[in-house]
Amino acid sequence: MQHSKPPASRTPQHRPSSFQPPQPQASGAQPMQRQPPLPQPAQTEIRIPLTITLGRSFQLKLPFLLGLLLIFTFTLIIFDKANLNTMDLSDLQRLQYNVQKIYSVSMFLFIILFALSLAIAIYYSLSLGWAAGLLVVPATFIPAIALGLAFYPWLVGAFMVFATVVSFAAVVSSVWHQLSLSRAWAVLSASMLLFTILSFFVVFYKVAGTKDLHVNSVLDLLGPFKDQIYAMPVFKIVYDHFAFLFASLALLAAAFVGFFIQITALALLFALQKLLPINE
């Protein structure tokens, strides 16, 4: 009797797994982090509305702008004929003759034309808005620069003062809708104040560049006392501040002339309002 052998037991065979546990990172390594975006610089936009309404009022007043260009040009030419110079105040030997220049025909015409330029500029820009009022700037600065550089280089500073004053009066009055005596007097007063201040600085810088010439012109009148005055301690103080003192005298003269310009411009402005009532 044969005994059969029991079947051999099959033990399960395990295949090597491809799964690998995560390796621990080194203590010094840091995980990659995404950099935050750089802040963009702030942008500031400034928008200035510049609108010129080409309506019936602007069309009616456009001839005034052209007339201002012509009259202001004649104003600059007449001012040269007045023959005003910074040496007029320092030349004491001819002071009585130089003072008469203020009452000359050329000076009288200059006051009339400059006042008329102010009146036309104010009347033109009235109720048109500041953008249309700015058109007075090229109407005054173009002839001032052209004539100053081409024919009167010694008067460029004075011409710039006149153009600035007229443009200032036009821009200020452009926001008004109606003309009144108080407003007209206020803008003309401010314009003449600007006129005197700018005249002070123009004369100051002009005299500061030729200070020795003006000082010698004043001292020549003293003759034999000239050397003694040079030796005085107070002379150095006067010499150092001579341009300021001289410009202060010019400021007084400009204020005197400016008063007559203001009165004349006020009368001409209301004459325009009466004869050509466009703003009513």
Structure description:
It is a single chain. The protein is mainly α and 280 residues long. It has a domain at 56-200 and 254-275. The chain is built from 12 helices and no strands. It has helices at residues 56-81, 87-90, 95-99, 105-125, 130-133, 136-150, 156-173, 181-209, 211-219, 226-231, 233-240, 242-275. The radius of gyration is 40 Å and the shape is elongated.
Outline:
This protein has 280 residues and is mainly alpha-helical.
Keywords:
280 residues; mainly alpha
Helix and strand topology:
Elements: H1 56-81, H2 87-90, H3 95-99, H4 105-125, H5 130-133, H6 136-150, H7 156-173, H8 181-209, H9 211-219, H10 226-231, H11 233-240, H12 242-275
**Could you name the ranges where pLDDT drops below 50 across 5 or more consecutive residues?**
1-6
- Percent helix: 55-70%
Structural class: mainly alpha
N-end to C-end Cα span: 146 Å
Question: Over all CA atoms, what is the radius of gyration?
Answer: 40 Å
Number of strands: 0
Q: How would you spell out the order of helices and strands?
A: HHHHHHHHHHHH
Calculate the mean pLDDT score and round it.
79
The tally of helices reads 12
Q: Beta fraction of the residues? A: under 5%
Largest sheet: none
